[in-house]
Amino acid sequence: MTILVFALVALAVCALLVLVHRWLWIRLVRDTTAPGGRTRRIGTALAIALPLLSVAALTTGPAGAPFWLQQTVAWPGYLWLAVLLYLSLTMLVAEPIRALLLRRLAHRDSAGAVAGRPEPVEVPAGAAPAPAPAAAERPAAGDGLSRRRFVARTVGGTAAAVALGTVGAGTYGVMRGPSVKRVRVPLAKLPRAAHGFRIAVVSDVHLGPVLGRAHTQRIVDTVNRTQPDLIAIVGDLVDGSVPDLGSAAEPLRRLAARHGSYFVTGNHEYFSGAQQWIDHVRELGLDPLENARRELPYFDLAGVNDIQGEQEGKGPDFGAALGDRDRTRAAVLLAHQPVVIHDAVRHGVDLQLSGHTHGGQLWPGNYLAELANPTVAGLERYGDTQLYVSRGAGAWGPPVRVGAPSDITVVELASFQA
């Protein structure tokens, strides 16, 4: 039954995408170009090729295609998905404007035809009819069509420019690297000596066929400039295998923090082979917290596996990570998905650090993210537990962010005793 539901949903999504692409082709290609012209042929070819590249970008990785092929189709395929989103939104806004302009054009043509109609002339019986006006005096049959095409080009061109500008700005934001965000979090149990302790939170880097070694290096440089006391990578580091992405992750070896660098799995690690990455990040000098706890000088640091690990029998185990600890000490939990906050509350966690949501990544995706997550971005309190959710340092799928800029967050712990 589950497979049948999935198949029906997939079929419905594919049908919707076909209809959307056909609608965009009509508005942006057919309505703006001359039949049989070179421009229409090119536009039609792109309307077929771009969605196929998007499908290839989404499927070559899971299908185990060579990494060079994944890289070849990833950029155009993923970028088209972002352009498709904003092109559809802008064309929806433009549709009533187009209809209004065409209605006014039709009204003007109708009024002009009535105003220019000659007065009826009586012709005596038996007289020859007057000759038809010369071709130069007749209205050109193509004038109305060319004006409609002008409207279509103006409206479609404006919508396309807005969509491409939005995606271009969002891509630049990702490729220049994450900014630094600073958040102060007071903890009641934190000793005075730990006041000002800085944790650099890095989430959702998503190394893969688009974001590679250069992106990792930007993140490492940014983190090290903040001079944190501790570094926490809270999942979704990669989208691919160690053989394909090991070199892209290599700069992580240069992360520097007085109390070390720690890692917990995200759902995408389990899509990529979690155990191989746990072993690899350990070689890079990170400490993987697999349902485990470290007793630091001022507080307990715990980490749990991602929920996706349940598919392999290695899901989150809060008892193993937080059981039998001294509850008079403050506890900071690393957990990829915010939805486990209620488990954190039950186990007396003072602060949970998470990612996963990307802050929605592509507006209006934040509204969808709100449906599945208790907190999409920022700091919120749940009982005696505080939850901080990072928007992430990379991007999944399209290397584009709109309305949810990437960040690395420096969480500064504050003691009530200070």
Write the layout of secondary structure elements.
Blueprint: H1 2-30, H2 38-59, H3 67-115, H4 143-175, E1 179-187, E2 198-202, H5 213-225, E3 230-234, H6 242-249, E4 261-264, H7 267-272, H8 274-283, E5 287-288, E6 292-295, E7 300-303, H9 318-322, E8 331-334, H10 341-346, E9 351-354, H11 365-372, E10 378-382, E11 385-389, E12 407-415
Helix pairs in contact: 1-2, 2-3, 3-4, 5-6
The description of the largest β-sheet is:
6 strands, mixed
- The Rg value, from CA coordinates, equals 30 Å
Instruction: Report the mean per-residue pLDDT as an integer.
Output: 90
The count of β-strands is: 12
Oligomer: single chain
The parts where pLDDT drops under 50 for at least 5 residues are 132-143
Distance between the termini: 59 Å
Strand order of the largest sheet: 1-12-2-3-4-5
Number of helices: 11
Proportion of β residues?
5-15%
Helices and strands, in order, run as HHHHEEHEHEHHEEEHEHEHEEE
* Helix content bin: 40-55%
C-alpha geometry:
elongated
Short description:
With 418 residues, this protein is an alpha/beta fold. The protein has 11 helices and 12 strands.
Please tag this protein with its features.
6-stranded mixed β-sheet, elongated, 12 strands, 14% strand, 418 residues
How would you sum up this structure, described in words?
α2 packs antiparallel against α3. Helices cover 45% and strands 14% of the residues. It is α/β, with parallel strands linked by helices. Mean pLDDT is 90; it is low at 132-143.
